[in-house]
Amino acid sequence: MNNKCWIGIDPGKSGCLAVLEYDNSITFFDWPKTGNIAHYMDCLEDFFLETKLRPAMCVLERVHAMPKQGVSSMFSFGENFGMWEMWLIMKRWPHMLVPPQTWMKGFLSKGDGATTKQRTVAAAQKLYPEAELVGPKGGFKDGRADAALMAWYARGQAMPINEKDHKERRKLVSESRPRRRS
User: Fold this and answer.
1) I need a labelling partner for 133 at 20 to 30 A (CA). Which of 31, 116, 122, 167 fits?
2) What 8-state DSSP symbol labels residue 52?
3) Is the pTM of this model over 0.85?
4) Are 11 and 60 in contact (CB under 8 A)?
5) Does 28 or 157 have the greater pLDDT score?
6) Residue 182 belongs to some domain of the structure
């Protein structure tokens, strides 16, 4: 049994932590809506103790303030980011702070939707067809999609590409590129 895994973390309000295992199975930990962070962190600790998984690389999305975002929402976002960064440091797990423009390269195609959310969900659905990325009312679980893609990105940063992974990436990238008209 291989106990390597890769983690992607979307620190946003509807964020998520995704754990990608060696066999390509993925587990999601959605950010709690109630703010019970201690219980959330206990669940994460229990998961890693029970599964004996050890992250080879973690990617935390490096984000910054955007125009027209409220002060209190940006403060809350900054708190989430800082909490995740401190957690990774305390765990002594290898990690990278990666801006969205970097980890999204090669994944997104304009043909997959009008918005970035639609495109990230479509790209994640290609990689993880069994993943629940759309809620019961049809809304996107874009925190899950982003975290899943960051976990895939982390995997590529942490291990040499074997032939199977290389073929999967080439296929994903070629499928995500817009087609040229003849």
Assistant:
1) 167
2) -
3) no
4) yes
5) 28
6) no
